[in-house]
Amino acid sequence: MTSRTFDDPRPFQKQVISALADSQLRANLGHATSTIRNKRAKVVAELEDWEALRDHGAYIKDLAQSILPELIRQVEVNVTATGGKVHFAKDAAEANQIAIALTKSYGAKSVVKIKSMATQEIELNKAFEEAGLEAFETDLAELIVQLGDDLPSHILVPAIHKNRSQIREIFIEKMGRSGVPAPKGLTDSPKELAAAARNHLRARFLESKVAISGGNFLVAETGSIVIVESEGNGRMCLTLPETLISVVGIDKIVPDWSSLEVFLQLLPRSSTGERMNPYTSIFTGVTAGDGPKNFHLILIDNGRTEALQDPVGREVLRCIRCSACLNVCPVYERAGGHSYGSTYPGPIGAVLVPQIRRGSIGKLEKSLPYASSLCGACYEVCPVKIDIPKLLVELRSQNVDRARDQGALTGEKLLMEVVYATFRSPRLFASSLDIARKGASLIGKRKVNIAPPPLSAWTKARSLPLPRGESFRDWMRENHPDHIVASAKAMSGESITKSTTNGLRQLGRFGLHLQHDLAKKRLRGNSDGMASFKVPNHQPIATPYKADLSIGQTIDEFVAPIKAITSSGFTKPIEPTTSYRTKGGLSPHEIVDLFIDRTIDYKATITRCNEKELAKTIQELLSKNQSSSLVAPKDFNPYWLSDKVLKFVTFDDQISHDRLDAIDSVVTTSAVAVASSGTIILDGGEGQGRRAISLIVDHHIAVVFEDQIVEVLPEAIGRINHRAPQTWISGPSATSDIELERVEGVHGPRKLDVIVVRRG
Amino acid sequence: MKIGLMITCINDALYADTAIAVVKVLERLGHNIYFPEQQSCCGQMHLNSGYRKEGIELAKRSIAVFEEFDYVVSPSASCVGTIREVYHNAAVATGDHRFEEVTTTFSPKVFEFSEFLIDILEVEDVGASFPHKVAYHPTCHSLRVTKAGDRPMRLLNAVRNLQLIELEKSDSCCGFGGVFALKNSDTSIAMGSDKFTSVKKSGAEVLCSLDNSCLTHIGGIAEKMNSGLRVMHLAEILAQTGDQK
Ligand code: SF4
Fold first, then answer.
1. Which terminal CB of chain A, N or C, has fewer other CB atoms within 10 Å?
2. pTM
């Protein structure tokens, strides 16, 4: 298995040519992007406070940047206090060296990986290969790309350029070379393809010692990492191996848990077009008896600090990598991801890549800002309000200014200067219009079909109109001579009168109000209530590692350049005046109905009963699933299990993963449920058990009491144990990696039964 | 109220009919519109292709030319959009506070033609008649920057004998994009061809929009294909009364 990386330095215009000629690719992309566009539009329209959420998403990211050095220190303190170790890498090479040294020191020859843009950006797979280690991708789309020796072409669905029959061929041909082969008679049904991936990876998950992940958000307040996924491969990697290494960019740090109530509404809707992705894992350091024994966080800079230096870079660094901008981009739809020449394709790539490669601007980086018609569709959907068209224009200006500084004389520059000179002088402008008109009448045509360069770029498929007939100015002179105004002031641009500027100074200016106070607790709900949560038993790293820790930087070295930027002239962002919903408005009865509706929508089954009937209900669900074995958390209430079930239930006491794999069903309670997205949250509280049991077992029965259901996500945040490892579940495991069509059932439980219980 | 006409450089050079149509429609509605002859270009071309210094000078110049009017009307969503958004962005990016203030004052006076009819003059029926099948293409700047919404449709619906045809995927970009059409001509043409195909499929005889720049691009493809599709600015359709051509 080799790891291909992006290494084509040619400009976008050149790289795009093969994509434009590939009609299969265009069909695949057109189909996939229009599917996801429609899904997104539907779930976004459900939220009346969507625009307010966007405002806050942008604001929180800006806020985080402005206090980044403090947040990094907070992360370090909190991760260390909970048993993890933080490493600081200034660039890709350092990050890779640290990850390799750690992997080797744990005696592993290979790692399993969760899809992560950060590890793609630093080309970790290639570095591992060069170090004699293997890195196995486990996300379905990444697996397709890796098996096919291909390059990713989309942020969320790296194999979006492949359709189901192409994927089938790759599986049949390549799976056997690196592990369990594809089953005989595999068809191109997405369900079968997903099942083949499950089968191919199952043993690998159970055997692997080390996993590598990225992170969607890193909550400074507690040092918690948030990973959003669908298939359950993420949960596998985060839960089963003994050692977990997370590689996270400093732009992923958010201040606190109330940041999550915003982003976990924005991200799933923007990326997969779902109200909530099937699985979100949140964990903090190392927790005794639940998940990896060793946890390392590698924080990477890799050009981000440089990007922080100017306003374009800052706006770009808000990005939460949802890929909504790709899915709506008409250029991406035709050009495909590979034409952008990097792991970050589409509109965000066009602005991000020139930013994080400020030190090495070549032909490709220069060309990217022009790879857009400035149609504005990206800005319209961006959940953190990155005004990509504005930034593209800004980057074009930087290109022009750079060329100017270097005194470069190009045809384009000459042309723009001539046009400028003409536009500036009314007389010159009027006379050139005349000359053009006369010239055109000499040609005697209305349109030309062939023109010399640079206009040949136009005429190769478009005719070019010529001025014809009477000019508007002549028409006015004849018909309305008295309506022509000659304005003397207009001769120079410097003639703007004082009267315009006065009086309206205040317009468009907002007072610098509502400065964010870090000390102000943003967390809603009962923060004293947090005290009632059991602090998990965090343990220091269990296995000593002998990695050379002289690699990388100290926290002081790492933070110093960031501090230099944020402490000089960095304006604090202004808190938005809009507000999003932090409380629902439905009655308890309606909330339960909404929850049921939304849960069914994501293919979980619902059974309702009262507490007295719970044991019977569980028994019935088990027999319906033909289960003959059941695992329950050690502290699961035995009164909820019938005598018959009690005969075959195993109460979990660190049962081995292999044994769990052989058990038919698992039953757990839950911490809280969110009606608006159909989400159940488990935080290891009473009756919920450790993460592995509700992951490896294929059939999950989740018990939710009616009074545990809240309407909107912000209400749930205050009810969960922030420091405990959590799993947020919305339906059974699923994937949308094949033509962006959702299929249920990949690595996590393929069947989810939810019992909604009335108390008493 | 004193109304100034900003015809834009492209109409000045190529599309006199559009500018004449604006004058005629407003006249028919009983309004005089004035043409400051020193106008040239709003600066969009320079601003969007990175020649910001020049673009800002042209922007300032345009503001000065139109400063004396109560309303400035322009048959171009992309030029109006430039004035509303790009001027501001350029002012902020260069730290030109004076320009920022001036543009903040100026831009609320500037209206794209369909906005002016519906929002300021409050008319939908301008007394036009046009016996053809017409499809409307919402250009990106009219869709997302000036946010014309259903205004053009309301105006077209009121035109006698006109049959409004729906376009599939109407909100997808035609691929013009100014400098994009030249620098990335292959992608631009691929997008334009898709747009042309959807117009063709719709069975419309005439394609109309609020921007002649995009129509030059789509119309250029149509022309090269000898398709017989006509492209017309909305103003030109609204100027038709049935007794002229
Ligand atoms: S730029 Fe915005 S829309 Fe695009 S990936 Fe980033 S967050 Fe998503």
1. C
2. 0.92
Q: What's the CATH fold of domain A588-758?
A: Rossmann fold (3.40.50)
Q: How far is A578 from chain B (nearest CA, A)?
A: 21
pLDDT, tens digit (0-9, with 9 covering 90-100), for A646-703: 999 999 999 999 999 999 999 999 999 999 999 999 999 999 999 999 999 999 999 9
Which DSSP symbol is given to A426?
Answer: H
For the stretch B224-237, pLDDT in tens is 888 999 999 999 99
Å from B168 to nearest chain A CA? 13
Give the closest residue to B231 by CA, choosing from B161, B176, B151. Answer: B176
Length of chain B in terms of residues written: 245
Task: Give the residue among A705, A634, A625 at the shortest CA–CA distance from A665.
Answer: A625
Distances (CA, A) of A437 to A168, A430, A468, A521, B244: 60, 11, 6, 68, 25
A 10 A CB-CB count for A628 gives 11
What is the per-residue pLDDT across A175-193, written as a single tens digit (0 to 9) for each? 999 899 999 999 999 999 9
Instruction: Establish if B193 touches chain A: CB-CB under 8 angstroms.
Output: yes
The helix/strand/coil state of B165 is strand
The fold of A46-302+545-566 is: Rossmann fold (3.40.50)
Domain definitions of chain A by residue range: 46-302+545-566, 314-405, 414-483, 588-758
Cis before A454 (ω within 30)? yes
> What's the CATH architecture for B133-238?
3-Layer(aba) Sandwich (3.40)
- CB-CB neighbours of A563 under 10 Å: 16
Within 8 A of B51 by CB-CB distance, chain A residues are 397, 400, 416, 420
CB A607 within 8 A of CB A640: no
User: Is B64's CB within 8 Å of A487's CB?
Assistant: yes
Tens-digit pLDDT profile for residues A537-596: 887 777 766 666 678 899 999 999 999 999 987 888 999 999 999 999 999 999 999 999
